[in-house]
Amino acid sequence: SLADAKVNFTKLRKDIEKKSREIQQLKLMVNVKKDSLHKAWLKSTVKLYESMDPQIAAKLIEKISDNEAKEIIYTMKNQKAAEILSYLKRDNRNID
After folding, report:
1. pLDDT of 11-45, one tens digit each?
2. 38, 57, 70, 78 — which has fewest CB within 10 A?
Protein backbone atom coordinates (compact mmCIF):
# COMPACT_ATOMS: atom_id res chain seq x y z
CA SER A 1 0.00 0.00 0.00
CA LEU A 2 0.99 3.63 -0.38
CA ALA A 3 1.16 4.18 3.39
CA ASP A 4 3.58 1.24 3.79
CA ALA A 5 5.71 2.53 0.91
CA LYS A 6 5.91 5.97 2.56
CA VAL A 7 6.96 4.40 5.86
CA ASN A 8 9.60 2.28 4.11
CA PHE A 9 10.83 5.28 2.13
CA THR A 10 11.12 7.39 5.29
CA LYS A 11 12.99 4.59 7.06
CA LEU A 12 15.36 4.11 4.13
CA ARG A 13 15.98 7.85 3.87
CA LYS A 14 16.88 8.00 7.59
CA ASP A 15 19.16 4.97 7.19
CA ILE A 16 20.91 6.65 4.24
CA GLU A 17 21.34 9.88 6.20
CA LYS A 18 22.79 7.93 9.13
CA LYS A 19 25.19 6.04 6.87
CA SER A 20 26.18 9.30 5.20
CA ARG A 21 27.08 10.80 8.59
CA GLU A 22 29.06 7.66 9.45
CA ILE A 23 30.94 7.90 6.15
CA GLN A 24 31.78 11.55 6.84
CA GLN A 25 33.09 10.64 10.30
CA LEU A 26 35.21 7.85 8.82
CA LYS A 27 36.62 10.20 6.17
CA LEU A 28 37.55 12.65 8.90
CA MET A 29 39.25 9.90 10.89
CA VAL A 30 41.20 8.78 7.82
CA ASN A 31 42.32 12.36 7.13
CA VAL A 32 43.46 12.80 10.73
CA LYS A 33 45.40 9.52 10.54
CA LYS A 34 46.98 10.49 7.20
CA ASP A 35 47.97 13.87 8.64
CA SER A 36 49.48 12.20 11.69
CA LEU A 37 51.44 9.73 9.55
CA HIS A 38 52.64 12.52 7.30
CA LYS A 39 53.85 14.59 10.24
CA ALA A 40 55.74 11.57 11.61
CA TRP A 41 57.28 10.92 8.17
CA LEU A 42 58.28 14.56 7.81
CA LYS A 43 59.85 14.71 11.26
CA SER A 44 61.94 11.57 10.72
CA THR A 45 62.89 12.57 7.17
CA VAL A 46 64.01 16.03 8.25
CA LYS A 47 66.04 14.52 11.05
CA LEU A 48 67.70 12.18 8.57
CA TYR A 49 68.56 14.95 6.09
CA GLU A 50 69.84 17.20 8.89
CA SER A 51 72.22 14.46 10.00
CA MET A 52 73.71 14.10 6.50
CA ASP A 53 76.57 15.93 4.93
CA PRO A 54 74.94 18.99 3.30
CA GLN A 55 76.38 18.20 -0.12
CA ILE A 56 74.97 14.66 -0.08
CA ALA A 57 71.63 15.85 1.27
CA ALA A 58 71.43 18.41 -1.54
CA LYS A 59 72.04 15.74 -4.18
CA LEU A 60 69.27 13.61 -2.71
CA ILE A 61 66.86 16.53 -2.41
CA GLU A 62 67.42 17.36 -6.07
CA LYS A 63 65.92 13.96 -6.94
CA ILE A 64 62.62 14.33 -5.07
CA SER A 65 59.55 16.34 -6.03
CA ASP A 66 59.60 20.10 -5.56
CA ASN A 67 56.75 19.94 -3.04
CA GLU A 68 58.49 17.34 -0.88
CA ALA A 69 61.78 19.21 -1.13
CA LYS A 70 60.16 22.48 -0.06
CA GLU A 71 58.40 20.85 2.85
CA ILE A 72 61.60 19.18 4.04
CA ILE A 73 63.73 22.32 3.65
CA TYR A 74 61.17 24.58 5.34
CA THR A 75 60.89 22.21 8.28
CA MET A 76 64.64 21.99 8.88
CA LYS A 77 66.61 24.11 11.27
CA ASN A 78 67.56 27.31 9.45
CA GLN A 79 71.32 26.80 9.59
CA LYS A 80 71.18 23.27 8.18
CA ALA A 81 68.66 24.26 5.50
CA ALA A 82 70.94 27.11 4.42
CA GLU A 83 73.91 24.78 4.17
CA ILE A 84 71.97 22.31 2.03
CA LEU A 85 70.46 25.04 -0.14
CA SER A 86 73.92 26.35 -0.90
CA TYR A 87 74.69 23.04 -2.64
CA LEU A 88 71.49 22.77 -4.65
CA LYS A 89 71.90 23.35 -8.36
CA ARG A 90 69.98 26.43 -9.49
CA ASP A 91 68.95 24.79 -12.76
CA ASN A 92 67.20 21.87 -11.03
CA ARG A 93 65.49 23.43 -8.05
CA ASN A 94 63.40 26.51 -7.43
CA ILE A 95 62.69 26.68 -3.71
CA ASP A 96 60.48 29.70 -2.92
Report:
1. 999 999 999 999 999 999 999 999 999 999 999 99
2. 78
